């Protein structure tokens, strides 16, 4: 009889959360709290963190520490753009680790639920002539704008009110311009939904424009942890990228 040594079976590929990075200390605390939720949902799954800029550990350092192990990089980003299309794949290709890169978190119905919850926490209640501005970071990449517009449609379907996307930089309209457009349509109660993974300068600036209420960033919501694991699992079905 052959005895199988189950202790020698390889573990699952590491899940590397790829955060943008921020000078706001709340951002790192939020990402770490999200990591804790992911770990709680999937005990035994190695979960690591790497930043594109501004915070340590930086993504290349996190990948270097993995050696030649397998890893799935899950961007904590909400749309396709330069970081998703260029920076993260370049870091993955340069690493010794055998990597797969997952899709960004957005757009996805789980995010619509999270945005709704954050608005409820801020005091959202349907009112006559109400509307929402979905405040995002912004990108010059048209795919990023398409993703944010898709997310606005998902949130509008959830709330039953108009939702306009707006941006903190690099794209139009601005949050104030979107508010002005909604007022021209007769919308009197306008909320700002913070479409950011974590607190930071852009989220703070967008919230300051809110004429009524502004929600907190998505943060370490349970649905965010579920979505991270969903992206991880989907990426496991894609080819591995190995160092040249």
Can you describe what's shown?
The protein is of the alpha/beta class and 244 residues long. Helix content is 41%, strand content 16%. It is built from eight helices and seven strands. The chain has a four-stranded parallel sheet with strand order 2-1-3-4, with helices on both faces. Helix 3 links the parallel strand 3 (70-75) and strand 4 (98-101). It starts with 13 loop residues before the first strand and ends in a 9-residue tail after the last helix.
Which strand-content bin applies to the residues?
A: 15-25%
State the helicity in percent bands: 40-55%
**SSE order, one letter for each helix or strand:** EHEHEHEHEHEHEHH
What are the segments in which pLDDT stays under 50 over at least 5 consecutive residues?
Answer: 1-7
Rg on CA atoms, Å: 19 Å
Q: What is the strand tally? A: 7
Derived structural class: alpha/beta
Residue-averaged pLDDT: 94
Major sheet details: 4 strands, parallel
Helical segment count: 8
The largest beta-sheet arranges its strands as 2-1-3-4
Ends apart, CA distance between termini: 42 Å
What's the SSE blueprint?
Elements: E1 14-19, H1 25-41, E2 47-51, H2 59-65, E3 70-75, H3 82-94, E4 98-101, H4 109-122, E5 130-136, H5 142-159, E6 163-167, H6 175-184, E7 189-194, H7 201-207, H8 222-235
Parallel strand pairs: 1-2, 1-3, 3-4, 5-6, 5-7
Task: Summarize the model shown.
By secondary structure, the protein is of the alpha/beta class. 41% of the residues lie in helices and 16% in strands.
């Amino acid at each position: 009889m052959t005895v199988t040594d189950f202790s020698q079976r390889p573990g699952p590929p590491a899940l590397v959360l790829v955060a943008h990075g921020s000078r706001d200390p709340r951002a790192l605390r939020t990402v770490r709290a999200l990591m804790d939720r992911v770990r709680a949902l999937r005990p035994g799954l190695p979960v690591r963190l790497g930043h594109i800029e501004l915070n340590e550990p930086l993504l290349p350092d996190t990948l270097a520490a993995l050696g030649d192990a397998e890893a799935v990089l899950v961007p904590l980003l909400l749309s396709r753009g330069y970081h998703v299309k260029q920076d993260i794949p370049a870091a993955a290709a340069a690493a010794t680790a055998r990597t797969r890169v997952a899709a960004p978190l957005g757009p996805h119905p789980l995010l619509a639920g999270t945005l709704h919850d954050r608005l409820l926490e801020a005091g959202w209640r349907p009112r006559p002539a109400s509307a929402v501005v979905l405040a995002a970071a912004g990108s010059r990449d048209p795919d990023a704008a398409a993703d944010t517009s898709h997310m606005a449609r998902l949130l509008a379907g959830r709330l039953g009110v108009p939702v306009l996307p707006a941006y903190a930089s690099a794209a139009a309209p601005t949050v104030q311009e979107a508010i002005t457009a909604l007022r021209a349509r007769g919308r009197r109660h306008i909320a700002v939904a913070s479409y950011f993974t974590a607190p930071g300068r852009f989220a703070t600036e967008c919230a300051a424009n809110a004429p009524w209420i502004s929600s907190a960033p998505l943060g370490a919501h349970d649905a965010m942890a579920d979505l991270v694991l969903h992206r991880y699992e989907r990426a496991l079905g894609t080819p591995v990228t190995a160092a040249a």
